[in-house]
């Protein structure tokens, strides 16, 4: 049986075939080394073709993979002495956002991120990574604490969006997101944001105002899910694949549009294939970025952050014609 995403099934089938041949040769006198070598060469070519030519919808599927590393996975790989802090001091604690104090190569930092579950029980506890207002207020509390003690802030983004339920709206979901956007724009310490999976709607943006914005190669960042966009545009959620193509939600698209600063390469097949290896790719970017941002004064940080968002996006001007109506 082949387990995996639809687009990578040919790769997985060939890998299984090679594995079966190797196991067969161990218990017999038949020499299949030439056949195995031939299949391995074919596999290398097939992997390059499949993983380097992924469609936007393929990337959406990888970003949503149930085994994709979470914020806590990356915290365990990248940081030491992590102490998780809880509660927003207004209503309660939201398990859909985790945050706290840690050390990065000896440097005290504040780490905040969306957190999904691995199974049904944990997903229910963490509300499938969709925060309530208290989650965003907890994140802001930790950011203001980081500013007070001059600690850089690192945000990991991975959510379908903020929770749209009645209770969340009653407790001020929109205000909590808007407050984060406003406050993050003026935080006087470096803020590094990394989209590690899905970056959905305002729920992602509430942790996404920073000095540097990075995306993992197979992550997505958009104002709405492809299914939601398809429902609005064509009244048919099954057209999500076409919506993903049109929305420009992948890392290469957003780099071209100037929304993000850099793409962090993923392990072949996706970050879920090798969490430790993926963390090393993030580690290199974090190290270089912190080295750069820690040289900048608080005043210049805020000014550069403002200019970064002011110039975001690409625009075209309509030509004016002499006979056009005024």
From TrEMBL:
Pfam families: ACCA (PF03255). Residues 38-292 form the CoA carboxyltransferase C-terminal domain. Its main location: cytoplasm. Keywords: ATP-binding, Cytoplasm, Fatty acid biosynthesis, Fatty acid metabolism, Ligase, Lipid biosynthesis, Lipid metabolism, Nucleotide-binding, Transferase. InterPro entries: Acetyl_CoA_COase_a_su, ClpP/crotonase-like_dom_sf, COA_CT_C. Component of the acetyl coenzyme A carboxylase (ACC) complex. First, biotin carboxylase catalyzes the carboxylation of biotin on its carrier protein (BCCP) and then the CO(2) group is transferred by the carboxyltransferase to acetyl-CoA to form malonyl-CoA. This is Acetyl-coenzyme A carboxylase carboxyl transferase subunit alpha.
């Amino acid at each position: 049986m082949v387990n995996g995403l639809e687009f990578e099934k040919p790769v997985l089938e060939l890998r299984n075939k090679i594995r079966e041949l190797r196991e067969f040769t161990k218990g017999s006198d038949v020499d299949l080394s030439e056949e195995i070598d031939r299949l391995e060469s074919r596999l290398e070519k097939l992997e390059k073709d499949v993983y380097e030519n992924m469609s936007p919808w393929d990337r959406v599927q990888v970003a949503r993979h149930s085994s994709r590393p979470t914020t806590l996975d990356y915290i365990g790989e990248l940081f030491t002495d992590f102490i998780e802090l809880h509660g927003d001091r207004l209503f309660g604690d939201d398990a859909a956002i985790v945050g706290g104090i840690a050390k990065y190569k000896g440097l005290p930092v504040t780490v905040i991120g969306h957190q999904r579950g691995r199974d049904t029980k944990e997903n229910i506890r963490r509300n499938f990574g969709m925060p309530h207002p208290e989650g965003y207020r907890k994140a802001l509390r930790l950011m203001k604490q980081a500013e007070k003690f001059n600690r850089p802030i690192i945000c990991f983004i991975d959510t379908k969006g903020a929770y749209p339920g009645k209770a969340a709206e009653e407790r001020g979901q929109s205000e909590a997101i808007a407050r984060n956007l406003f406050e993050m724009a003026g935080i006087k310490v470096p803020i590094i944001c990394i989209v590690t999976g899905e970056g959905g709607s305002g729920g992602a943006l509430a942790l996404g105002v920073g000095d540097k914005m990075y995306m993992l190669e197979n992550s997505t960042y958009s104002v709405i899910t492809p299914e939601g966009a398809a429902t609005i545009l064509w009244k048919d959620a099954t057209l999500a694949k076409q919506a993903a193509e049109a929305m420009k939600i992948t890392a290469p698209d957003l780099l071209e549009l100037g929304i993000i600063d850099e793409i962090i390469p993923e392990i072949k097949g996706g970050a879920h294939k090798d969490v430790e290896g993926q963390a090393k790719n993030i580690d290199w970017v974090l190290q270089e970025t912190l080295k750069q941002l820690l040289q900048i004064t608080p005043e210049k940080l805020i000014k550069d952050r403002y200019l970064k968002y002011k110039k975001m996006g690409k625009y075209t001007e309509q030509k004016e014609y002499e006979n056009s109506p005024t």
